[in-house]
């Protein structure tokens, strides 16, 4: 099936764009790309973490910064209205599984309430023409049939997974009921420069090696995952937003993935090899509340958006390792 995918060279120039989660891994990379395309970016910031890439690389000086929370519907409505926002990228969330397990209520408040607050604000602001919501492969929960495709039911079981299932369905309901121009991304595990959540596998492993410590694996090392470089995700988000008005795209969910499946131990070994380290990982085999195997089919994104991953794990790890090496210096 051949599909017309519209890419306009100056699509984002002068366009007012609201990004939640702007100081995180994906948010920072997306803001950087939007700024390079001369968009007028409004960034929602909850906490000013001076160690984040967003502030370290002075992205904050190139955008409008609004301090607030997704849990505040009045702030969201004000932002969309006063800045005449045309496009919304809803990336902000509590994303750490362990944090969600320790404190489910705060995760539900941010990820679920925050999403319906933003969708309702978008519904009330007619200048908003395109919305991309960051769901997750975790929204599918545990499934017997792999890889997941977009028809796989959303059935999260643990707090973080459930929060993503719920938020995903909320966005779908706003499209089906009100025709809200929303697209949903369900991405593989993202990695890349600027991720300061060191309990995640890739930044945590790199950090340990740089300190001369053995990398720690919480599971048995056999869990299978997709790992996607953040620049692949940025391209996916922009492409989806640019095409959101097409009837076959609006309201749809898309998986984005390298379509690889790599075990935790394979990822750690790849990092050790690239960093020329002779350290060996410590396998704790005590992971709880995590899905064992998850990997995605991106066939729908290939067919309808002509999207494909350009960064296999080997290619994405190199700039990631370089960034952390400089960061810790």
Can you characterise this structure?
Helix 1 crosses helix 8. The protein has a domain at 16-189 and 228-257 and 294-308: NAD(P)-binding Rossmann-like Domain (Rossmann fold). The protein is globular, with a radius of gyration of 19 Å. With 329 residues, it is α/β, with parallel strands linked by helices. It contains 11 helices and 13 strands. The chain starts with 15 loop residues before the first strand and ends with a helix. Helix content is 40%, strand content 15%.
Principal-axis shape equals globular
How does CATH name the architecture of the domain at 16-189 and 228-257 and 294-308? 3-Layer(aba) Sandwich
Order of helices and strands: EHEHEHEHHEHEEHEEEHEEHEHH
Our measurement of the CA-to-CA distance between the termini, rounded to an integer number of angstroms, reads 50 Å
Report the sheet-strand fraction.
5-15%
> Uncertain runs with pLDDT below 50, 5 residues or more?
none
Tell me about the largest β-sheet. 7 strands, parallel
Q: What is the CATH superfamily of the domain at 16-189 and 228-257 and 294-308?
A: NAD(P)-binding Rossmann-like Domain
- Number of continuous helical runs: 11
What is the total tally of β strands? 13
Q: What's the CATH first level of the domain at 16-189 and 228-257 and 294-308?
A: Alpha Beta
Radius of gyration: 19 Å
Strand order of the largest sheet: 3-2-1-4-5-6-11
CATH topology of the domain at 16-189 and 228-257 and 294-308: Rossmann fold
Percentage of residues assigned to helices: 25-40%
Mean pLDDT over the full residue set: 94
Decide which structural class fits the backbone: alpha/beta
């Amino acid at each position: 099936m051949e599909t017309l995918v519209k890419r306009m060279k100056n699509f984002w120039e002068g366009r007012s764009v609201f990004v939640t989660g702007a100081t995180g891994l994906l948010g920072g990379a997306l803001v950087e790309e939007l700024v390079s395309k001369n968009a007028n970016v409004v960034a929602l910031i909850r906490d000013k973490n001076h160690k984040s890439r967003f502030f370290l690389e002075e992205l904050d000086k190139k955008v409008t910064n609004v301090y607030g929370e997704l849990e505040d519907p009045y702030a969201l409505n004000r932002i969309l209205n006063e800045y005449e926002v045309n496009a919304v990228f809803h990336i902000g969330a509590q994303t750490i599984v362990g944090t969600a397990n320790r404190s489910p209520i705060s995760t539900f408040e941010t990820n679920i309430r925050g999403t319906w607050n933003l969708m309702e604000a978008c519904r009330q602001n007619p200048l908003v023409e395109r919305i991309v919501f960051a769901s997750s492969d975790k929204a599918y929960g545990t499934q017997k049939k792999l890889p997941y495709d977009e028809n796989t039911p959303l059935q999260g079981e643990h707090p973080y997974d459930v929060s993503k299932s719920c938020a995903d369905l909320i966005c779908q309901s706003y499209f089906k009921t009100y025709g809200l121009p929303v697209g949903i991304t369900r991405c593989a595990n993202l990695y890349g420069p600027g991720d300061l959540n060191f309990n995640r596998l890739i930044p945590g492993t790199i950090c340990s090696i740089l300190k001369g410590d053995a990398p720690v694996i919480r599971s048995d090392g056999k869990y299978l995952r997709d790992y996607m470089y953040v620049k692949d995700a940025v391209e996916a988000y922009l492409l989806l937003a640019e095409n959101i008005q097409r009837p076959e795209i609006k309201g749809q969910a898309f998986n984005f993935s390298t379509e690889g499946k790599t075990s935790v131990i394979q990822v750690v070994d790849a990092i050790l090899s690239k960093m020329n380290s002779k350290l060996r990982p410590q396998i704790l085999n005590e992971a709880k509340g995590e899905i064992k195997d998850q990997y995605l089919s991106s066939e729908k994104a290939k067919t309808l958006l002509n999207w494909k991953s350009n960064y296999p794990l080997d290619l994405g790890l190199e700039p990631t390792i370089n960034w952390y090496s400089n960061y810790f210096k």
